[in-house]
Amino acid sequence: MKHNPTKKKAPAYSISGTRPRCKESCSPGPRYYVASMTRRGKEVAPAYTISGHPIVKTEITPGPSDYSPEKSRKHVYRCAPIHSISFRSKSFRVDSTPGPARYTIPKMLGPNTVDKTASPCYSMKWKSNIGYFYEDRHKTPGPAAYNRPKLDAYKHRAPEYSMSSPSRPPGDRTLHPGPAAYNIGKVTLKKSMSSGITFGIRHSEYTVPLIMEIY
């Protein structure tokens, strides 16, 4: 019966029967022992075989007259260099090469050279009429012809002050108090005052006094 996957499975063990023993006749006996056989093969002394020379048929071979040893000097022995000079080719013409006017050499001066570093160039010009010896110096502008800029335009601005006439209050014709209108003695509102002592009754004014009869 197969296991139900929705239930827990308890451990299960299988018990099998005893294995049969090996048969005694499965291995060779002592009579099959060979002393010269090892795990690397048969153990024997080295042996050599001697046979006759193989027969090679000689059919046609070159003779001594077929060789030219005198022609092997350049290939076998050292020799000096040899040069050959021949006549000019017939296809060559004198007027086939371009002349000097056919080439356009780039300029080496100025900044217009693309693939070369330009050298410094200087231009020399005639003297200007300004400042020349025949110039009339009386026609030059004087100091009054220039507008003097303010110092505040290119320096720190200095402090400035304005002075005007003294200001006067507007006229007031209303009545103002004079010196006699003030009471100088009553200054306790503004100045410190010493402590004062007041004598009075302790009982209330609404309490009936105690009247005792004296005989």
From TrEMBL:
Q: Where is this region: Disordered?
A: 1-20, 159-179
From which domain of life does this come? Eukaryota
InterPro entries this protein is in? Answer: CIMAP, SHIPPO-rpt
**Biased composition, class Basic residues, residue ranges:** 1-10
The cross-references to Pfam families, in alphabetical order and at most eight, read: SHIPPO-rpt
> What's in the GO CC field?
cytoskeleton
* Signal peptide coordinates: none
Q: Which PANTHER family match?
A: BOREALIN N-TERMINAL DOMAIN-CONTAINING PROTEIN-RELATED (PTHR21580:SF28), SHIPPO-1-RELATED (PTHR21580)
Q: What's this protein's name? A: Outer dense fiber protein 3
Q: Which organism is it from?
A: Alligator mississippiensis
